[in-house]
Each structure stands twice: as structure tokens, then as C-alpha cells.
Amino acid sequence: MLVEAAVQRSGPGQHVPTVAGYGDGVGLPAATALVLVLLALVNLCNNRWLPRAYVVTSVVGSAGLLALARGAGLGWEDLGLGPGWVPRGLLWGGPPALALLVGLRVAVGRPGVSGRLRDDRVARSRGSVLYQVLVWVPLGTVLLEEVAFRGVLLGLLEPQVGTLWAVMLSALAFGLWHVLPTAAAARADTVVARALGGRGPGWAVVGGVLLTAAVGTGLAGLRLVAASLLAPALLHLASNSGGYLAAAAVRRPER
Length: 255
What we know:
single chain, 5% strand, mainly alpha
């Protein structure tokens, strides 16, 4: 269900858009600003200040973002979490996620391709790999990023600027979200660093922002078509956890 915007008069000559159907709500521009501030703080915590608390920070941040969205008047449908969101998410997100996993499995078995999947950041022990794939990625990365960009931010922007601009702006924010992790990846022996051919982290950041913004556009489109946050989350999970497993397989983790 698309959000229907109402206009709440806050004073002479002033109009603050809010969402109809959920109390008076917080003004949508103010809620959007608060969401961006919270995302900036979470990004700094995860990449600079408290990287060891990555999962906890992400889960708490996701809860905070949902609380802000609900306080602004968004319904669960506006966040991709309305009735039927699970079956619709499985229907629209399951097939592409499965196709991606199959593609990664094939790539691991091809000598000319598997070497490009190598990533020196991948843990060697199987326990560590399983923790990354089953906890770190689903709860620390996918949950937060899907709630933030395809759920809350997209839902807040749509009644303010329309669907097209909401998709574009949320995708741009998703790209900028990856500035710090992309810069770190460019300094290590990763797929990103090898693709750049030693051209430095500056090129990596620019390329990373453009690439993840493009990915964010596709994921936002999938979220809207499916009317479910689960659909992009499944594809995102397949990409990140599947990619990690592929890199681990190339590296042959020890017990």
C-alpha cells in the first residue's frame, strides 16, 4: 500500500507533510533528517568507533529506525512489512537469490574465475566463517541496510518526493553508506583492490558509491514490486553470505 501524504498546518504559512492514518505523526522532513543522523552515527560506530559491536549496533539501530518511522506515521505496509510480506518476499526474492547462489557455486569451480573471488579478510576457521555467514551478515548487514534504505528511508521519502525520486535518493544514500567500508577494502587484498589495479582508495570509493547506488536502485525496485522488504533482503543475503562462502571456499578454510 502506498503512503498517502497529508498536510499538517504547523503555523501561518507553514506546511509540514505527515502520513495520514497514524496519529498526528512527526513531520516527515524532520523524521527523515533524524534517520540520516542515526545512520551516520551507526556507520561511524560500525566502521570506526565500535567495530566489535557491529551486530549489536546494527540490531539496535534497526529498531531505532523502525521506531522513528512508526513515530512519523508510516504503517507496516509502507515499510514493506504489511500482511503477506513473507510469501510475497519469497515469491519475488527467492528465485533471483537462488540463481545468484548457483552462479557463485559455478564460479568457485572454475579455475579462471575462482581466483578473482579471493579475499584476504575472509576467516580461515570454519567456525568463524559460519558466524560471518549466519550472524554477522544477516543481522549486522542485511537487516540494518534493508530496514534503513528499502524500508524506512524509502517509505519516508515516497510521500515527500514521489516514488522515482524516493528510489533514487535512497539508492544514493545507500551508495554513500559504503564510503568507509569501501576505502578499507581497497587497502586490503580484496576483489575491490585487485579490480582497481593499484589505483588507490579514492577510485575505490567513487566506484563503490556508484556501484552500490546502482544495486540500491535495483533492490528498491524489487521492494516496491514485491511490496515486501523480504524480497530485496533475500537477494542481499545471497550476495553477501554467498559471496563470503565463495571466498572462503577458494581460500579453503581450516577446521
